[in-house]
Amino acid sequence: MKINAYIDSANLHRASNELGFDIDYKKFRGWLRQKYGVEKAYIFIGLIPKNAKRYDYLQRCGFILIFKETISVEKIIKGNCDAELVLNSISDFYKKEFDKCILISGDGDFACLAEFLQKENALLNVLAPNKNKCSFLLRNKYAVELMFLNEHYHKFSNKISSKEKAPDADGSA
């Protein structure tokens, strides 16, 4: 069975950081492979040229990066990748690039995608990065298989002190 993961990078990064964890992406990729059999893991991320080393690292860890151009609004960098994640996953579904997939986000904007994939028997699971910040649309409205990463960060992350926490350490919002 071919299983793909589609990861909302901003949501995962922000949620893990707020909980005090710095993800070790090599371990995280291994965890996805071991626990779910994920063949391809796509990370949707805002493109910031100064983060080139970070992008290289993520690719060496086994992730496929899908970039969104960013814009700067009042010194806040925006790179909303939601449409790219939806388009890529739906395109892969119709091209039969996977049998099942995992969505990694707690953003309610993906509820319609989760519902569609579930109706098509193509959704293995939604992994919400933070139980306390998971959207009502994912949590209650649709009966999707939902797991929270709160109890799993210790398997693939390092605990960070509160003074190290930076909600948008990668520079994107």
Automatic annotation (TrEMBL):
InterPro entries, per the entry: LabA (IPR047140), NYN (IPR021139)
GO MF annotations in UniProt: RNA nuclease activity
Source taxon at top rank: Bacteria
Coiled-coil region: none
Residue ranges of every copy of the NYN domain listed in the record: 3-135
Pfam families to which the protein is assigned, alphabetical: NYN
Designated name of the protein: NYN domain-containing protein
